[in-house]
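LOG
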Amino acid sequence: MTYSVRLPQDIKKRPEHLAPQTGRSKKLYVMQAIEQQPGHLENVYLAEKRLEDIRAGRSKTYTLDEVERGLGSAS
């Protein structure tokens, strides 16, 4: 899949500056930056969505005791 993205100059300059110093490609640094972020971003956005659902009453929360009872592991 191909994407076209316009980057702000300060972000664009970073791989352009690093590539010739290390002998690696700009593409390598851009790919690594993209690969390292999705997990973090997914966690943040999913947590925000979950909180929104809880506040709007679309999702139920459970106490630790309720979860333990449901799993049959209450002490």
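LOG (cont.) second protein
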Amino acid sequence: MRTYFHKSFRLIIWISLASLIFASCIPQKKMLYLQVQDEADTLSTFKNERKIEYLVQPGDNLYIRVVTPDEKSTFLLNPLSAGNNQNIGNDASVYLNSYSVTESGYLDFPMVGEILVKNLNVEQIQKKIEDHLNTLLIQFVVIVKLVNYNITMLGEVNRPGQYKIYQNSINVFEAVSMASDLTDFANRNKVAIIRQTKTGSEVVYIDMTKRDLLLSDYYYLRPNDILYVQPLKGKQFSFANFPYGIMFGFISSTILLLNYLNN
């Protein structure tokens, strides 16, 4: 009877140990991006002809600077930054030296007046200001930049937070790389993008393990998008790096206990 008990106890221990190992490990397939689903999937080029430039909306902020050979004209055309010698690389300084787009889609520019900029991209706004100034100046250069291009990364990312984007566009993988990639516990099959709309907000889910993401309208992010990466189910029971030290210690303790019971 005692021998039977010892054998049953050993069997339970080894079964429990094996179950723990298999249940706690994260399959590699759940951690790979842009997976090839089958051998017939040989597509290597993904065309996406949609426009990715952002169209300015009410509430946006634009940094606009006009440079001319005439110091007085430059001063009059740049009243927000006139006499301000501090480094405009500071985020707060850039914001304070920017123009806000009104609810009706206009901005009030010196010597020109109100300019409709709603639903225009940065290049179109620059061209529109240049057209207005052509009647006033002979030589000048117009610089227009979108100020409030922020992306927020939350959930299972290595460095969650809000990130400033200093370029015209950014895709999902570029955004994830800024946050030092997703964690090993991230559910790459269901990443939420929370996006502001005219009527409120919308939530869409993308699958970063599938290659057709490259064709999606949500592959490129927009200003103020929020990415929320959910954890895998059973995260509390999983670990990315197997704790071999703890497991070997458990095995050693079990062997000692079995030897003690046998004696």
